[in-house]
């Protein structure tokens, strides 16, 4: 009978070791889950902050585009008003208007090149 008792004792020790290992693994899994949740939270917070910056940049770019369009309209309206009024511009005045038109065209081209160079952002689900 001593052999059977020894086997039972060995079985009990093995069972305790197994349970101890399981507890350790479960604790480690819980720890890993907590760490993953923290990391995911940080990623979500970072994504939200970056999206806020992207929104601000887009609003600024929209403002530049609106200002450029408004400037171009004012220039065109001024040219039409001058043409309709029959006034004669001095060469200096005409040069100033031509420079304004050239600057407006250059600004429009520059804002377009900026817009074309920046890829459209993908929509991030849940943000």
Which SSEs are present, and which pair or pack?
Elements: H1 2-85, H2 91-117
What tags apply to this protein structure?
single chain; 127 residues; mainly alpha; 87% helix; rod-shaped
* Helix percentage: over 70%
Low-confidence stretches: none
What's the total helix number? Answer: 2
What is the H/E order?
HH
Give a short account of the largest sheet.
none
Q: What overall geometry do the principal axes of the alpha carbons give?
A: rod-shaped
| Helical/strand content category | mainly alpha
Total count of strands:
0
Mean pLDDT: 82
Tell me the number of structural domains: 1
* Terminal Cα span: 69 Å
Query: How much beta, percentage-wise?
Result: under 5%
> Which value, in Å, is the CA radius of gyration?
36 Å
Provide structural commentary.
By secondary structure, this protein is mainly α. The chain has one domain (2-117). 87% of the residues lie in helices and 0% in strands. It is built from two helices and no strands. The chain has helices spanning 2-85, 91-117. The longest helix is centred in the middle third of the chain and has 84 residues, at 2-85. It is rod-shaped, with a radius of gyration of 36 Å. The two termini are 69 Å apart.
């Amino acid at each position: 009978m001593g052999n059977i008792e020894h086997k039972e004792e060995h079985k009990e020790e093995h069972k305790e070791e197994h349970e101890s290992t399981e507890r350790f693994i479960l604790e480690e899994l819980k720890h890993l889950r907590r760490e993953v949740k923290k990391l995911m939270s940080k990623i979500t917070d970072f994504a939200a902050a970056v999206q806020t910056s992207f929104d601000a940049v887009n609003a600024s770019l929209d403002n530049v585009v609106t200002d450029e369009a408004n400037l171009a309209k004012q220039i065109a309206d001024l040219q039409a008003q001058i043409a309709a009024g029959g006034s004669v511009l001095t060469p200096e005045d005409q040069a100033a208007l031509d420079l304004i038109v050239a600057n407006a065209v250059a600004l429009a081209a520059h804002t377009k090149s900026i817009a074309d160079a920046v890829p459209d952002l993908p929509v991030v689900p849940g943000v």
